[in-house]
Amino acid sequence: MTAKELAGRLGMTETGLSIAIGDNGNPPLKRLQEIAGILNVDISELFERKGDFIAFVRRSGVTHTFDTEKSLKEFADTL
Asked: CA-CA distance, 39 to 2, in Å (whole number)?
């Protein structure tokens, strides 16, 4: 699910989602519960370590998260 899709399901814009999550990456518990519910996962799964690679890219006020080099390269290729 993209950040845009998640934001839409939360009833906000992608920028609004970025603000709601917070610049420090510490969103309120209520927001984490909403996100976990939409993704149909336990809150703890939002913090699971998937591998040795993680990258965050902030572009035009939107934060993108990548857990593989391949996904980061694919994003970069679209720019």
From this structure: 11
